[in-house]
Structures are given as structure tokens and as C-alpha cells.
């Protein structure tokens, strides 16, 4: 528009126009505040989600580590139980007089009355 046309258009300053301008300004102010609140809320929600995801990943790593450690400990437990069973069997054999006599004859070359022991060169097998 040219300047001549701008001068011909006159702005009305009635109460209605002023109230509409004030209402429009309030609405824009309210809208800016709403957008700011929504952005702040989104940032907070994003931070909480990031924290939860990092904590979930950390717990998953700890769980995998604990499961690996559990498997190792279970293997050790089964080996210890087998060893304990063998030791109990050996203890029971050591309570048997015949077994002790056999060991004494074999390792220390002791004999019963009337028994002759022939030793082989080298170590005997158990």
C-alpha cells in the first residue's frame, strides 16, 4: 500500500477493539507460558527416562555378571561335593581293618605270621 492509502485507513480505538487486543495479548502470553511449561515437562520426562534406561542397562549388566558367577560357584560346589564323597569313602575304607592291613603290607612290606612278601622293583600301583 502506498502512503496515501495508509493515511486514509483509520484505526478504530473503541473499547471493543481494545478489549480484543488485550484478550489477544493475554492469549499469546498464556500460549507462551503453556509452551514453556510443556518444554520443561518434556525435558524432565526425558531426563527421568534416560536415568531409568541407564539404570536398567546397569542392572542387566550386574545380573549377567551375577549369573556368570553363580555358574562358576555351582561348578565349584559340585566339584567340592564329589571330593567330599570321595573323602567319606576313603574314611570308611580306613576304618576297615582288612584295608589297613593291605596298605601296610603293600607300602611298608609288613607281613602276617607265616607270610612271605616278595617286593618288585619300582613302585607298586594302588
TrEMBL record:
Keywords: Coiled coil, Membrane, Transmembrane, Transmembrane helix. InterPro entries: DivIC (IPR039076), FtsL/DivIC (IPR007060). It holds the Pfam family DivIC. Residues 63-97 form a coiled coil. The keyword rRNA-binding does not apply. It comes from the Bacteria. One of its GO terms (biological process) is cell division. The keyword Translocase does not apply. The chain crosses the membrane at residues 34-57. This is DivIC. The lineage of its organism: Bacteria, Bacillati, Bacillota, Bacilli, Bacillales.
